Amino acid sequence: MAKKITGPQLIIANRLDDGRAVFLTIAGDWSPEVANAAVAHCEDELQHLLAVAQASEIANHVVSVTAVAADLSGETPSPAHIKFAMQARGPSVRTDLGYQVSPNWEQ
To answer: Beta strand 78-79 with 62-71: parallel, antiparallel or unpaired?
Structure first.
């Protein structure tokens, strides 16, 4: 049985077109930058964000919508668990390839 996450949370998913990890923003769209992620501080906020995210999943914009614990100790929020932090950073085996190489990769 999975542990119930307590504390602030953010929503992570993967885009369907390229598989990139993206975060739900307060505007209801998806950003590859975790700094833009909406953070839910209570259960009501989390349920609202999950409803928006699941509607986006139904519309086939993203897959694997997941609420994850947020680490707010830095300047910007980040996933608290290493699994989701690595997913957000991109491939770690070939750091010379992929979106982590250039900030202009998606443009």
So the answer is: antiparallel
The label of the residue with tokens 């077109």 reads 17
**Long-range contacts (CB closer than 8 Å, 24 or more residues apart) made by 81-87:** 84/12, 84/21, 87/12, 87/21
Residue of 68 and 80 predicted with greater confidence = 68
Q: Is 31 exposed, middle or buried (0-12, 13-18, 19+ CB in 10 A)?
A: middle
Specify the pLDDT at position 96.
66
Three-class SS string for 53-67? HHHHHHCCCEEEEEE
With cut-offs at 50, 70 and 90, classify the pLDDT of residue 19.
confident
- Cβ distance 42 to 104 under 8 Å? no
Domain limits, the chain: 9-101
Q: How far apart are CA 63 and CA 54, in angstroms?
A: 9
